[in-house]
Structures are given as C-alpha cells and as structure tokens.
Design a protein that fits this description.
By secondary structure, this protein is an all-alpha fold. The chain is built from 4 helices and no strands. The chain has helices at residues 10-16, 24-34, 38-48, 52-59. Helix 2 (24-34) packs across helix 3 (38-48) and helix 3 (38-48) packs across helix 4. The chain is elongated. The termini are far apart.
C-alpha cells in the first residue's frame, strides 16, 4: 500500500492570495471587507488582475 500523502498548506495559501471574480462568495467577501459593491469588485478584478493585494489596494482609493 502506498504511503499517505502529506497535506500541506501551500494550496490554501496561494488560494487566499487571489480573488476569483466568478465566485460569488469571493466577490462578496472582498465587497464586504472594502465596503464597495460586488460589481465594483468584479470591475477591479478585470482591470488589475486577481491578486488580492492589488484588488484591495485599488478598492481602498
């Protein structure tokens, strides 16, 4: 029998660093956190990419 795979946090860490513009819960979270509308979050994701840092920085303006 093969040894069990070691679970790492790498995938989760990478996922937290991104905003999935097509996922309602991701957009809702960013919207609630920044106080902007969901449509504003989606527009920013399209404009600056899906990096959470860049999206939040742009929405903070």
């Amino acid at each position: 029998m093969a040894a069990a795979k070691k679970k790492t946090a790498r995938g989760r860490k990478q996922d937290r660093a991104r905003v999935a513009g097509g996922q309602k819960y991701e957009v809702g979270y960013a919207s609630k956190k920044t106080g902007r509308s969901a449509s504003a979050v989606k527009k920013v994701v399209k404009k600056v990419g899906n990096s959470r840092k860049r999206v939040e920085k742009r929405l903070a303006r």
